[in-house]
Amino acid sequence: MTVFDTMVFSMFNHYKIRFKRKANAISIFYISLLQMAILLFIGVFFSIFFNQMNVETMSPNKAWVLFVIAAIIIYFKNWIQYSGKKRRVLNAKSTRSKTKRFNVYVLWVLPFGIVAVSILLLKA
């Protein structure tokens, strides 16, 4: 199992107690948000890097459109991956073995921290 799988199942198991039917939707939303934040950080980093190297690759408007398209693709990929049979198989593997559980509150701070660092990097 990957780190993202472990994070999804940590969120799923935490919210399964209170929100039985919405736990999967919350965990899919979380992992999509995290991956979009990482994608934003990588995009901002390369944008600043290429700007410092005086390389004109694409306009900022086209870059934001590309980010939105990639975000939609990430959400649907996660929705397909963690909604079907594969999620049940991975969930069975995670409950059978001693997988590492993450603190849910730290997991929620992680994407917002990445977005904050990305915004600071974009402004600098």
Describe the 3D structure.
- Helix 1 packs antiparallel against helix 2 (23-52), helix 2 (23-52) runs antiparallel to helix 3 and helix 2 packs parallel to helix 5 (104-123).
- This protein is mostly helical.
- The termini are far apart.
- The radius of gyration is 17 Å and the shape is elongated.
- The chain has one domain (3-123).
- The protein has helices at residues 3-16, 23-52, 60-83, 85-96, 104-123.
Total strands? 0
Query: Helices and strands: which structural class?
Result: mainly alpha
Q: What sequence of helices (H) and strands (E) makes up the elements?
A: HHHHH
Give the averaged pLDDT, no decimals: 88
Number of separate domains: 1
The portion of residues assigned to helices is: over 70%
Question: Low-confidence parts lasting 5 or more residues at pLDDT below 50?
Answer: none
Q: How many helices?
A: 5
Strand content: under 5%
Highlighted features:
single chain, mainly alpha, 81% helix, elongated
Quick take:
The chain has helices at 3-16, 23-52, 60-83, 85-96, 104-123. With 124 residues, it is mainly α.
Walk me through the topology:
Layout lengths: L2 H14 L6 H30 L7 H24 L1 H12 L7 H20 L1
Helix pairs in contact: 1-2, 2-3, 2-5
